Each structure stands twice: as structure tokens, then as C-alpha cells.
Amino acid sequence: MLLQILVTGTTLGLVYSVVAFGFQIVARGSNIFNFAHGEFVALATLIYFSLSATFGLAPVVAVVLTVLAVVLVSFVVERLMLAPVRVRDPLVIAILTIGIGTLMRGVMILVWGHDVLFAPPVLAGRPFSWAGASISRSDVVLVATCLVVVAALYLVFSRTLWGKKILAAAINPEAARLVGVEEGATRVSVFLLAGLLAGIAGALVAPVTFASSGSGFNFVLKAFAAALLGGLDRFAGPLVGGMVLGLLEAFTAGYVSSAFREPIVLAFVILALMLRPSGLLGGPTERVT
Amino acid sequence: MTMRASYPIMALFVALAALPLVTASPYHLTVAGLALIFAILAQGTNLIMGTAGQASFAHAAFFGLGAYTTAVLSAKFDFPLWLTLPIALCLSFVVGSLLAYPALRVKGFYLALVTLAFSEIFTSVVGEMPGVLGGTEGITGIPPFSLGGWSAESRMSKYYIVWVGAVLAYVSLARLGASHFGRVARSLRDSETGATAIGVNLIAAKVRIFAVSAVYMGFAGFLYAHFMQYISPTSFGFNVTILVVSMVVVGGLGDATGVLVGALVLSLLPQLTRDYVGVEPVIYGGLLIIIILLLPEGVVPALRSIPRRLQRKAAAP
What we know:
The structure holds two protein chains of two kinds.
Chain A: H1 2-30, H2 37-54, H3 59-82, H4 90-112, E1 128-130, E2 133-135, H5 137-159, H6 161-171, H7 173-178, H8 183-205, H9 216-230, H10 237-256, H11 261-275
Antiparallel strand pairs in A: 1-2
Chain B: H1 6-22, H2 26-51, H3 59-76, H4 81-105, H5 108-127, E1 146-147, E2 150-151, H6 155-178, H7 180-190, H8 192-197, H9 202-228, H10 238-251, H11 256-273, H12 279-294, H13 299-315
Antiparallel strand pairs in B: 1-2
Helix pairs in contact in B: 1-6, 2-6, 2-7, 2-9, 2-10, 2-11, 3-4, 3-5, 3-9, 4-9, 6-9, 7-9, 10-11, 10-12
């Protein structure tokens, strides 16, 4: 029981982490709180479903095509709807992304309907079991991919010039501009990276849970919570926040109440932010008062 | 915010009052009544987001709190209206003040997350409580507005009560905006540091703004429960917050007249598209995107600036 909950919680936590990284990178790199981020994940689950179940493509091909499609959509969205925005107020831009998310959900409902769709597994075969706990092969692929993605992100931000430019723009936009980091280019690149992460998470989570046009809100709520819970300005923030949320959700469902797991997890988030307003990893902040 | 802007709104309210003379269709009156209720919600949202600049996303929960308090007390415990209304408003006030405390600790998007989480907790807890709260099925058999021996049985009488409520909310909010309270709220939006420097008590001001805006949304919930006589958790989810925030932004964030126009227009939109599943979010989302990209300050402020722009053009050689 305990082991099974740990396995479920870790899987869930890693998915939340990868989605939250996409949310955090855009928030830091361009100061846009992208409330449409969850819809990109939902879109990925649906595209993966169509490619693998309807068109019968091999799972690996379907995953790759899904990721490419979601990256393309995020490029179009950035160029068409975010780049031309003339206001600076982050709240108004956040509401713009709510509009983008609503539009995307509407399009998904028109194309795929409201139904919950079950996609074929990425890796077929009997689940691995050990000491009473079992994990499906698709879950193993999901966990392994998420770990690789997190490691790759770490390398990108610590070793490459591209990653360092984004970090520079995040830490001090003014100074970054002075040394030649182009604002527009940073915005496009963080948005594409977020699309890539949403695509990977969505394509791999579709066979594990389900694909649905209505799942976007839950993804963005968890990503938003994980990124802020961990600490928005720390690299490991989304990882820590996502893992805490995933494990807490699994443990609450297993030991306390499955029906009330959502309110319990969210109440924990509120409490944690009141005690540590800049996140679990964040340093002390000035009080507002 | 000033009384200068209120003439077109008065005309709008008079036109809405005359609506039952034109149509007796219960469907039309229901749509118009809901539009008025959403206009109250949008104005309460505008107070906290537009005037005070606080990123609060808990509007739907306060709307639901008012509606559920009213529904449970009147339908399950037979409380009379003169008791349910004050209880609903007081409860909104208290919970609104409590939610202000996180707002003292966290700002900006951290506040958005806290308020959004609060709102989600509200709907999921209500949905999981089948007994008194009705669970996902909701609460049916809520009595209409009634006071003493009289009760508003017909759609028209219910509509007029909602109309009176909306007018009261509009007038009182316009006066609040022009008062010391309104100036303090605007000072928070413009600069918290500046506000503190000129002697604004930040804690008291934030608590009061959260509480007052919650009271307006709770009042809208009270009207909704008696007007529709049926409520369920889905009427108070994040989609309602999106809808209300869209109304405020489309009309003009911080512009009282604009917000009211935005609320009335966007409430009618779903009625035109309700036969086509999925079209509604496309239209809402598309409209929100187009307005923020083309008229970031909102439709009504943009309309208002046309004469000024024309003058400037005429003055320039």
C-alpha cells in the first residue's frame, strides 16, 4: 500500500513538475503568467489520442508528432496573440492568456467533443510488480522521460548560452537588454520551450490517465500551484512543488479521503504560501505590510 | 467612477425597467434578470481588481457563498428573507475579511493562486457534501423572494426585485468609489508604498476592500438563489470567474460604466450561441483576445476617447 502510493505519487508529481517547468519558464523569461498552459497539455493528450487510436500510428511516432504539433501551435499562439500585445500590466496579459485558453478549449470541444478518451499505451505489456506494488510500462516510460527532461532543463539553464540569456532576462530584464539579450527572441524561445514540455507531458500522460478537452484547467492549476509552491525564482521550484503536490495528492487519496483530496491539497498550498510567501525554496521576503 | 458617467447608465436601467412592457416571455425576463445579477458581480469584481488592483480570483466562490447560504437557510430550514439576507451578507463580509489575510502576506500572482485555490476548495467541498449542501445535484425548491405574507411568484415580480437590487448595487458602488474608501482603494492600486507614506493603514484598507467586494458578490448570490430557485456547484466554478473577469476587461477595467455595459453584453452572448456546443468558449476567448489586443483599456473607455481624439485631430493643422 505504502509503496504503491509512493509510486503513484512520484509519477503524478513528475508530471506536475514537467508541466510546472513550462509555466515557470514563461513566467520568469517573459513575465507572462500563462493560464493557457494547461490547454496545451490537454491539446497534446487529444492529438496523441487521435494519432495513435484513430490513425493507428506507432506510439513513438505519435509522441514525436504530438510534441511537434504542440510546439507549432504554441509558436502560432505566441506570434498571433501574445507578441502584438501593447499593454504591460501583467494582470491584463494574464487575462489575455485566459482568453487564449478559453479559445483553445472551445476549439478542442468542437474537434474532439466533451468525452473522456482512452489512448493506447506507449509501451504495451504486463506491468512490473514488486513487493505488492505495480507500475505499468507506460508509467515507467513517463517517469523516465520526465527525469530526462528535468536533467536536460538543468543542463540547458546551467551550461548553454541560450539558457543563460533566458535566466538573465528573468533576473534583470533591463541589464539583460543592455548586454544584448533581445526581449522578443526570449519571449518566443521560452514559449516554444513551454510548448515542448506541455507536448511531452500531454502525449505521455494520455495513455496513463486519459485524453480530454476538459483536463486543461486541472493541469494549469497544478502547474501554477507547483511553480509558486516551490518558489518561482528557483530552478528546482517546479520540481519540488510538483513532487510535493503529487505525493500529497496520492497520500491524501490513499490514507485520508479520495473525495476531499483536491480541497486538502489546495488548503495545504494556501497555508504553505502564507507561512513561506516566496515558496518552499524561496528566501524570506519583505512583508507586504 | 464619477457621477458624470452615470446618465447613460440611468437610461440603461430605465430601459431595463421597461423590458416587461415589451415582452412577457419568462425566458426573456430570466435572461435579463441574470444579466443584472452578473452586472452586480462584475461591479464587485471591478472594485477589487480594477479600482484596488488586487489579483483576486475568488469571485465565483463569494457568489456561491451568498447563494448557498440563502438556499440552505430558506429551502432547508425555512428561514424568512429578513433573516437570510443579513446572514448571507454578514457571512460574505466575514469570509471576505478572512481571505484578505493571505492578501497581506502575498501579492500579485501569489495572491491570484491563493484566491483561485480558495475558490476551487469551495466548489469541490460543496460538490462532495450531498446532505444539507445538496452535493453535485445542487439544491432545488428554493422559495422565491417573499416578505411578510407577500411572495414574488411571477417571473416579472422576481425580475423587478433583481432590477432594484442591481440599481442599489450600482448607486452604492458609485458613491463608494467617489468616497474616501474609493480613493484609498485606488491608492493601493497605484502604489502601496506611496499609500503607506501618506498614512493609509494598509491592513485595514485591504481587509475592508476584500470584505466589501465579497458583500456585493454575496448579494448577487442571494438574488440568484431566489431568482433561479435552483443552484448547483457548477454555477459557481472557475468558468464563472472567467466570465465575470471577461465582462470587466471587455467593458473596461476600473471604468464603472464600462463594466456594467460589458456585463450586460456578455450575459446575452451565451443565449445567442447556446444551441452550438463549443462555440461559446470560442466566442468568449476570441472576444477577450481581440479586445485586449486592439482596445486594451476596454470598449467603453475607447468609445469615450473618440470625441477627444476627433478634437485633437481638428485642432492639429
